[in-house]
Every structure is written in C-alpha cells, then in structure tokens.
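Prompt: For my understanding, could you write out one protein's sequence and backbone structure tokens?
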Amino acid sequence: MFFFEAIPWYNAMIWLVVLSLLIGLNELVRASKWASIAFFIVLPVILTPIWIFHDASDVTSWFHWVKVYSALAGCLIYMVIRFTNYHIKHKWYLILVPAILALNIVEAIARELQVGIIGFNGIVDGMQYISGGWNYINGLAGLLNLLLICGWVGIYATRGKRKDMIWPDQTRLFIVAYAVWNISYVYSCAPGNAFYSGLALNMAAVIPAFFWAKGTWMQNRAQTLSFWMMWVMTFPYFFAVGSIFNVSVSYNPAANWTLAIISLALNVGLAVWQVYRIVKYRLHPLKDEIFAGTNEYKLANATRETTEAS
C-alpha cells in the first residue's frame, strides 16, 4: 500500500473501535460537567505517578509529556468557558483559547524541525524514522496554519443542557487544513502509531464538528487528544512496534512528500481565502470574525440563537 503496509482486518476493526471510543468519550464529556471534571482533573492526577514510572519507556519523548499536559490545559481552559461566566466578565480570557491551539501547533513544528534538522533515520524513541524535505514543507504548512487562527473574539458557550464552547469562525477548510497538516506531521514524526493517532484521532474531532456539533471542533480536538495522550502515556507499548495492533507506515518518501504537499496547498488556499475576505471587507484579523455572514458561520452560530431562545 502507498501510505501503510498491509492493514489486516483486525487492525481495521481496532481502528474503528478507537474512533468510536474517542467520539463516545467526547460526547460523554460534552454532556456532563462531572464527567469533564473526572476525566480532565481527577484522572490525570491519578495517572501522573504511572506516567513518571513509565518515563524510562523507549517509546515516549519530551513531546509526549508536553502534549498530554498542554491538551489537558486546553480542556481546563475550555471548561471555564463552558461552565462559568468568567469569560463574559473578563473578555481577555478568550485569548487563551487560540493561545493553547497555537502552543500545540508550535510544539509540533518544533518536533518536525527536530526530525528534519537532526536527521532522524533509523530507530529513535522506539520508532523507525525517515526524514527529508517533507519535514520542512509540513513545518511551513504548520506555521501558516498557526498564522491563520482567526475569529477568537466570537467564541461563546451554549446555555442548554449540553455545555459546548463554540468557535463559529473556524471554517471547514481551516479544520481540514489543520487535520491534514497534523496527519502529515504524525506520519513523519510519530510513525509508530500514525494509523491511529493520525487518522482516527483527527477524524474523532472532525466528524462531530461536521455533522451534529457545528462550531465545536476546537473543543473536540482538545478533549479527544487528551483521551488519546493519557492512553499512550499509560500504555506506551499498546500500539507500538511489535504489538499485534501496530500498523506500520510504508516508509515511502513519496508518501511523506504527498501528505506534506497537500498540507501546504490546503493552508495556502486557506490563506488566500482569508486575505481575500480581509481586503474585501476591510477586516482586522485580530479583532474581527473573518467569516461572519457566510453560510458556515451562520450554521455554527445558530447554536447561540437556539440556546438564547430556550
């Protein structure tokens, strides 16, 4: 196969199980304040000693530690918005939402450049790597994605039974551009479980945001990433090389190049669209919602109208 080696039926089934569990857990914490507290505050406190014990694992690196706690930090920041009025009384608080997203992107860019500059080829952190120009191309795509974060001033929380943080200005193109960039990043920089942490993990955040929970992608991404990273830190060898559940990437440079080029093209396309709207409507990229008035924006923002009317 082009991107992966053979995918046996049982690995395909496990992929569906991972995807379903991530979506299911995300729906659980969307529906319950207490489930959110249990998963994002209580559970990490209990698991941290186990992670310290696993610190000698040859399949974890500095990136895993930074990623698990930054993802959890995002969940906690979003919980304040979802369950309190603090962000209404203190408007500055909303900037923490794009800040934590930016931090996560910067972490990945740093890892991408580390893999490319040092030249990870062979076994590193328990994974087989190949490095090349695609690391720099995808790093550039990540930088573009970082610069294209917009419309955070319009973030709000729903008021119904299900407390969600809604970011109406995050378009489907932004979500897809981020997802493909992240898949390309994982494929090159965490190839040992790219089949799951690249494809399944990104799809778990995208599917609800596209079909039944519009405007929630940022929230979904932090929550599903937290679930995944807590699992990886607790059971570092579950999907690692040598496990029956592992699916190896093809280690075909053409596959790495393909993902990186598509990632860059999508982010360039998003940049062109944003610049077009900024110029046409004379918008300030840091103060205005760039996609206000579009059908996508209206669909995501319809949640506000529904909850305010109830």
Remarks:
- The longest helix spans residues 253-281.
- Confidence is low (pLDDT under 50) at residues 306-310.
- The longest strand covers residues 122-124.
- The CA atoms of residues 166 and 215 lie 5 Å apart.
